[in-house]
């Protein structure tokens, strides 16, 4: 075994740091790590004490290219103002089975809707969220706080000084975006609001019309079966007309029409 120390390349060290880090690492943080390591460890680590952010950025790019060229299933992703190792999208199914099999989704659809409202309208008070969703969100907000996806950012000037909520750094990491500026367009939020309004209107119509709403739901669930039944009824309409004519004729002769038993 050789006693000669092998000096790793800059990109190797960066790769090891990104592998070990639990959170995205910024260029500034990387630079601090190199400086602190040189001070504490000395020796060959001093050769990297004066690395600049541009040198680190080049090392990240070179490492990312090596990972892709080697078909390692990994790449470096810039997220939440930093860098982290991520798996290639094509490897996702195997990782989901490995890591999430049998586990319920942490974020339900109502939770995602609530989180979207906070993300796009922050800082926002609870009453504003409820105005958009149309339901109470107390428990949903508590769950999002527990997951550290949102935080209290201050108090509103409204009566009672309610809490103002906003997203966190962990929110950016969870959804893999660099900053709030990378959020999708507000059209999606508008569609969410419109869908909620349509659901509320449909619920109101169902309460007011009763059987009519049930007929519409039946058509949606059975894929048009209700229409086919009505078409069959229309085709049999002449038979009902003939029966009505016969009934009128019997009535004209003073006979009472027979009572028909319907099932």
Write the layout of secondary structure elements.
Blueprint (H helix, E strand, L loop, with lengths): L9 H11 L6 H15 L11 H17 L4 E6 L2 E6 L4 H9 L8 H13 L4 H8 L4 H9 L3 E6 L7 E5 L1 H7 L11 H23 L1 H12 L2 H11 L1 H16 L11
Antiparallel strand pairs: 1-2, 3-4
How many helices does DSSP assign?
Answer: 12
> How does the helix and strand content classify structurally?
mainly alpha
Which topology of the largest domain does CATH recognise? Arc Repressor Mutant, subunit A
Helix fraction bin: 55-70%
CATH superfamily of the largest domain: Winged helix-like DNA-binding domain superfamily/Winged helix DNA-binding domain
CATH C-level of the largest domain: Mainly Alpha
Distance between the termini: 94 Å
The total of beta strands comes to 4
Rg is 33 Å
- Beta-strand percent range: 5-15%
Average pLDDT reading: 79
User: Architecture of the largest domain in CATH?
Assistant: Orthogonal Bundle
N-to-C series of helices and strands? HHHEEHHHHEEHHHHH
Biggest sheet overview: 2 strands, antiparallel
Strands of the biggest beta sheet: in what spatial order?
1-2
Q: How many domains, as an integer?
A: 3
Shape: elongated
Low-confidence stretches: 212-263
């Amino acid at each position: 075994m050789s006693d000669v120390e092998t000096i790793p390349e800059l990109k190797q060290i960066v790769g090891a740091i990104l592998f070990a880090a639990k959170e995205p690492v910024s260029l500034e943080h990387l630079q601090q790590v190199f400086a602190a390591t040189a001070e504490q460890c000395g020796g060959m680590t001093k050769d990297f004490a004066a690395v600049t952010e541009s040198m680190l950025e080049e090392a990240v790019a070179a490492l990312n290219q090596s990972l892709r060229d080697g078909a390692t299933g990994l790449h470096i992703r810039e997220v939440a103002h930093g860098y982290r190792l991520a798996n290639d999208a094509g490897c996702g199914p195997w990782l989901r089975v490995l890591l999430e099999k049998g586990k319920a989704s942490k974020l339900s659809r109502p939770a995602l809707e609530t989180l979207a409202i906070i993300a796009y309208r922050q800082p926002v008070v609870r009453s504003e969220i409820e105005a958009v969703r149309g339901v109470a969100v107390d428990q949903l907000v508590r769950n999002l706080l527990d997951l550290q996806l949102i935080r209290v950012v201050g108090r509103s000037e409204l009566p009672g000084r309610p809490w103002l909520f906003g997203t966190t750094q962990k929110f950016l990491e969870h959804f893999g975006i660099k900053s709030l500026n990378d959020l999708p367009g507000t059209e999606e939020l508008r569609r969410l609001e419109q869908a909620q309004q349509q659901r509320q209107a449909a619920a109101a119509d169902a309460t007011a019309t009763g059987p009519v709403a049930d007929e519409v739901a039946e058509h949606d669930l059975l894929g048009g079966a209700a229409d086919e039944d009505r078409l069959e009824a229309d085709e049999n309409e002449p038979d009902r007309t003939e029966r009505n004519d016969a009934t009128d004729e019997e009535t004209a002769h003073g006979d009472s029409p027979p009572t028909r038993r319907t099932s």
